[in-house]
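Researcher: Sequence recovery benchmark, item below. Answer with residues only.
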């Protein structure tokens, strides 16, 4: 049985913005860290979950070949008239999907709302005026960090005449052109890989590039190449601490000392979101040296 109508009903009701579907359990509504059955008596069979994933994928024109190694996991987005955009993540366990469905918020927070501390906001605005280099955003709360970045991109779009280009998997928000021109590319939908999306940003002489992850060495090298030109690069890297993020980037690359030196020179600042949403900026030479060299 295809449970897509029941899932959409839960999202439309406002009872939850996130839904988890696992074989042999009811539809689970996720609110914060808590999960509650939408209907405790309606248990989803493995076939129900497979049918539901097929139904969701059909809505998104997303092809899944069950049993293929390429179908072990995936992410896609659905646009609906009533609910706006819905993001679907799935993984396969023992031949059966586990599905996570999330209603994507349509309202991008204002920059002053996302960054309420006046001093932090001032430094971030200064970074956004830069014409080249890298601003690294870290923190374990992916949605929270993305909200800050999109608030910054919205501010640029509303106030500056620039070309803004994003590479994401999947898109977090949609940005309509305002004073800036905005190009948003979704990996595996509009472009094959993050690395390819980064390098193709230069076809348009992009002013601001946003990358929501740096998954491999090629992506990192392309980001460094672009940041060496007249492009300001904003990059999100999931990490509990900014120092761990730097170390993880370091491990992506083989030429250690040269890489560290080049990246250190390119990074204008590191914006880290702590667990409770507080932002900490590392922008001074001493602060950045401590992150890179541990002093």
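Model:
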């Amino acid at each position: 049985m295809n449970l897509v109508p029941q899932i959409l009903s839960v999202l439309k009701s406002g009872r939850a913005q996130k839904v988890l579907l696992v074989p042999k359990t009811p539809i689970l509504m996720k609110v914060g860290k808590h999960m509650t059955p939408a209907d405790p008596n309606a248990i989803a069979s493995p076939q129900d979950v497979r049918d539901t994933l097929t139904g969701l994928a059909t809505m998104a024109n997303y092809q899944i070949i069950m049993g293929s190694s390429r179908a072990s996991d995936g992410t896609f987005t659905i646009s609906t008239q009533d609910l706006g955009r819905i993001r679907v993540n799935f993984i396969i366990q023992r031949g059966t999907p586990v599905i996570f469905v999330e209603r994507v918020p349509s309202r991008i927070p204002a920059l002053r709302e996302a960054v309420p501390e006046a001093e932090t906001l001032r430094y971030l605005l200064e970074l956004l005026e830069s014409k080249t280099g890298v601003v690294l955003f870290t923190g374990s709360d992916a949605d929270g960090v993305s909200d800050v970045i999109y608030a910054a991109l919205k501010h640029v779009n509303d106030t500056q005449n620039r070309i803004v280009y994003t590479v994401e998997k999947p898109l977090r928000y949609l940005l309509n052109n305002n004073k800036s021109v905005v190009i948003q590319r979704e990996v595996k939908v509009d472009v094959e890989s993050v690395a390819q999306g980064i390098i193709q940003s230069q076809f348009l002489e992009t002013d601001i590039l946003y990358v929501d992850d740096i998954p491999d060495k090629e992506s990192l090298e392309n980001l460094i190449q672009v940041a060496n030109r007249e492009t300001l690069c904003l990059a999100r890297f999931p990490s509990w601490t900014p120092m761990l993020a730097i170390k993880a980037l370091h491990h992506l690359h083989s030429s250690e000392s040269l890489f560290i030196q080049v990246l250190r020179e390119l990074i204008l600042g590191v914006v880290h979101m702590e667990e409770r949403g507080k932002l900490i900026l590392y922008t001074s030479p001493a602060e950045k040296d401590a992150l890179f060299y541990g002093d």
